[in-house]
Amino acid sequence: MLSDEPVVLDGGLATQLEARGHDLSDALWSARLLADAPEEIVAAHLAFFRAGAQVATTASYQASFPGFAACGVGRAEAAQLLRRSVELARRARDLLAADGGRRWVAASAGPYGAYLADGSEYRGRYGLTARELVAFHRPRLEVLAEAGPDLIALETVPDVDEAVAELAALDAVDVPAWLSYTVENGRTRAGQSLEEAFAVAAEDDRVVAVGVNCCAPDEVPGAVGVAREVTGKPVIAYPNSGEGWDAAAKAWTGPARFSPEQVTGWIAAGARFVGGCCRVGPPDIARVADVVRNPRGIA
């Protein structure tokens, strides 16, 4: 997977599921469909693959044992649903195997704030100890790893403390990971410097890429440059549309600023993995893929 050529990531899985008519306003978000409509998740993965994505990120971002328990789902069933998230992405990949394209599955592990479902992933600083954060992340990382993804996506991390806890939780698994922060104004959402944020993964061989996601597109070039300079690792960039999330209203606000043509600048800054996050759909990823394949021929 770590070639010199850029790799195209998918976009917002929940965005595509909502476009297919699903209401994802409850606390489990897209993870609810792991039980209610698994074939819809396969269809969403297929839409991104067919648009040119080479990586499917699983529907487990907001899935956790405490989150499932709060919705009345027991531990055994929760583990089954976590494994299913990986299996569904693999199924979508296998359906396209005949075309000979290389594709990968990244098991999504969102931050603790995603479980809270109150916008905390855009703030961090939950008031938990490092031990408590490790205890939250480790069990689901173990289950996701058992399902056989190609790597684990530690994504939308809002602060350094949680990143350190997630890396500690990786001790329990044997799957490579990427570490991706959500950032604002050139710092983590909790306000730490990006130099400090990326430094925690610089010497960790389990982390095969570092970068940013679910941030405004104009945050990407600067963050990519810092990530590359601090770690020397391949850099990943998949911002959202540029709209803001109103946690109280559970709605996106403001104008979209995501433009696939920006990808050339991200790659020039050092990004190796490029795609989109929330509010970025298959048509956007198709244009990203076109830019990656033909960077000088942007229409």
Automatic annotation (TrEMBL):
<feature type="binding site">
    <location>
        <position position="214"/>
    </location>
    <ligand>
        <name>Zn(2+)</name>
    </ligand>
</feature>
<feature type="domain" description="Hcy-binding">
    <location>
        <begin position="1"/>
        <end position="292"/>
    </location>
</feature>
<feature type="binding site">
    <location>
        <position position="278"/>
    </location>
    <ligand>
        <name>Zn(2+)</name>
    </ligand>
</feature>
<dbReference type="GO" id="GO:0032259">
    <property type="term" value="P:methylation"/>
</dbReference>
<protein>
    <submittedName>
        <fullName>Homocysteine S-methyltransferase</fullName>
        <ecNumber>2.1.1.10</ecNumber>
    </submittedName>
</protein>
<keyword id="KW-0479">Metal-binding</keyword>
<dbReference type="InterPro" id="IPR036589">
    <property type="entry name" value="HCY_dom_sf"/>
</dbReference>
<feature type="binding site">
    <location>
        <position position="277"/>
    </location>
    <ligand>
        <name>Zn(2+)</name>
    </ligand>
</feature>
<keyword id="KW-0489">Methyltransferase</keyword>
<dbReference type="GO" id="GO:0008168">
    <property type="term" value="F:methyltransferase activity"/>
</dbReference>
<dbReference type="InterPro" id="IPR003726">
    <property type="entry name" value="HCY_dom"/>
</dbReference>
<dbReference type="Pfam" id="PF02574">
    <property type="entry name" value="S-methyl_trans"/>
</dbReference>
<keyword id="KW-0862">Zinc</keyword>
<keyword id="KW-0808">Transferase</keyword>
<dbReference type="InterPro" id="IPR017226">
    <property type="entry name" value="BHMT-like"/>
</dbReference>
<dbReference type="InterPro" id="IPR051486">
    <property type="entry name" value="Hcy_S-methyltransferase"/>
</dbReference>
